[in-house]
Amino acid sequence: MTQIIINSSSKDSCRRSLEDAVLMSKKLTMFSGDTHTARGSSGDGVTPVALIIDGTSLVYILDSELEEKLFDLASNCSVVLCCRVAPLQKAGIIALVKNRTADMTLAIGDGANDVSMIQMADVGVGISGQEGRQAVMASDFAMGQFRFLVPLLLVHGHWNYQRIGYMILYNFYRNAVFVLILFWYVLFTSFSLTTAITEWSSMLYSIIYTAVPTIVVGILDKDLSRRTLLTYPQLYGAGQRQECYNSKLFWLTMVDTLWQSLAVFFIPLFAYWGSNIDTSSIGDLWTLSVVILVNLHLAMDVIRWTWITHAAIWGSIIATWICVIVIDALPSLVGYWAVFEVAKTASFWLCLLAITIAAITPRFVVKFLYQYYRPCDVQIAREAERFGNQSALSPVQIEMNAILDPPRR
C-alpha cells in the first residue's frame, strides 16, 4: 500500500503535511479512475492508500480548521491508523466521521481508555479480558475475543436487521388494521358512542390474540443460515441498502393494511345487510376474522418454521376462539351468547373464508411476482440454500455467485 505518514510537532507542519497528502491521494484516485476502487480494492493497477497519523499531530488537527483537511484525506484512504492517541482523541476521530457523513460508526475496545470512543460511536463493542470490564460496561455488545466481531456483524447483525425491519412493518400493520376496522364502524354509525367489538376483545387483541406470534417470530426467525452469511459477506449489504425497511415498503404496507381493513369490515356488512343480526355478533365476526388474517399474514412471511412458531401462530388463533367463546358465555357481559348464535349460520363461515381470500390474495400475488421476477440477493441465497445439496452448481447458485461475487477489474 502507499503509506502516508503524518508525524508533526507543530500546527504549520501538520497543515503542510495534510495539504501534500491530500494532493497525493487525489492523484492516485485520478490515476485509478474510480474513487471506490482506489479506496478499498486491491485490483490490478490500483495501489490502496493508507494514512498513518500519531497523537501529537492530532493535538493540532482536531478541534481546528485542519479537521476538514484530515477528513478529506481519510476519505480517500483504504485504512487510517491512529497511533499513540489519547482517549478523547479516539472519540474525536469518531466524531470527525459522524458529523460529516450519514454512515454508521462502530467502535471496539477492551480497556478504560476506549470508553470515550465506544460511547461516541453509534454502536459500541466491548471486549472482556485482562484490561478489565470498563469497556464492557459502556458498550452496547460484549464479547470475549476480537475474532467474534465477524459473526457479530455478518451473522447476528444481519439477522437482527432483518427481524427488526420486518417487525416494525408488521406491528404497524397489525395494529393499524384493527384500528381501521373500528374507524370504519365509527364512520358508518355517524360517530355514535356504540361499539361492535367488546372492550375485552379490544384489550386482549394486543395481549393474547396477536402478541405471542410477534415475539416468537421476532426472536427465532432467520432468513439465511450462519454458514451462508459467513460464506457471502456481501449479503450484509442488504442492511446498508435498507432492503427490509424503507419508506417505500412502509407505504406499501399501509396500502395493504387499508385494503385488508376494508375487506374485513365490508364483506360481513354486505353479507348480513338487511338481516336481524346484532352488533355483538358481527363484532365477534370482525374480531375472529382480523386475528386469523394477521396471523396468516405473519405465517406467509415466516422463513424458518419450528414447532414453537407453529404453536405460537396456530395456538393464538385457537386461543382467540376460546376467549371469544368464554366472553360471550358470561351473562354479565355485553353480547351474551352472540357468537353461538351467529356461528350456527353458513354465512358466518363463508364470510371468514371470503375475508381471508380477498384480503390475502393481493399480497400473495405481489409477493410471488416480486420474488419470481425481481429476486434480491437474500432471496437468491435462500434458494441456493434450498438446492445447495446437489453435487453440481444449480443455475440459482451460478446467478448468486455472479451477483454476490462479481469479477474484479
Instruction: Please state the CA-atom Rg, rounded to the nearest Å.
Output: 29 Å
Give the total of beta strands. 6
* Residue share in helix: 55-70%
C-alpha end-to-end distance:
18 Å
Strand order of the largest sheet: 1-2-3
Q: What amount of the residues lies in strands?
A: 5-15%
Total tally of structural domains: 2
User: What coarse outline follows from CA principal-axis ratios?
Assistant: elongated
Q: Which assembly state applies to the chains in this document?
A: single chain
Taken in chain order, the helices and strands follow as: EHHEHHEHEHEHEHHHHHHHHHHHH
Mean pLDDT: 87
**Helix segment tally:** 19
Low-confidence stretches: 34-44, 390-396
Main sheet makeup: 3 strands, parallel
Name the structural class. Answer: mainly alpha
Question: TL;DR of this structure?
Answer:
The chain has 409 residues and is mostly helical. The protein is built from 19 helices and 6 strands.
Provide a descriptive summary of the structure in words.
One of its GO terms (cellular component) is plasma membrane. InterPro entries: ATPase_P-typ_TM_dom_sf (IPR023298), HAD-like_sf (IPR036412), HAD_sf (IPR023214), P-type_ATPase_IV (IPR006539), P_typ_ATPase (IPR001757), P_typ_ATPase_c (IPR032630). It is a multi-pass membrane protein. Residues 136-375 form the P-type ATPase C-terminal domain. Mg(2+) binds at residues 110, 114. It is a single chain. The chain has 409 residues and is mainly alpha-helical. The protein has 2 domains: 2-27 and 48-145, Rossmann fold (3-Layer(aba) Sandwich); 151-387, no CATH class. Helices cover 64% and strands 7% of the residues. The protein has 19 helices and 6 strands. The strands form 2 sheets. It has a 3-stranded parallel beta sheet with strand order 1-2-3. Helix 18 (377-386) runs antiparallel to helix 19 (395-404). It is elongated. The protein starts with a strand and ends in a 5-residue tail after the last helix.
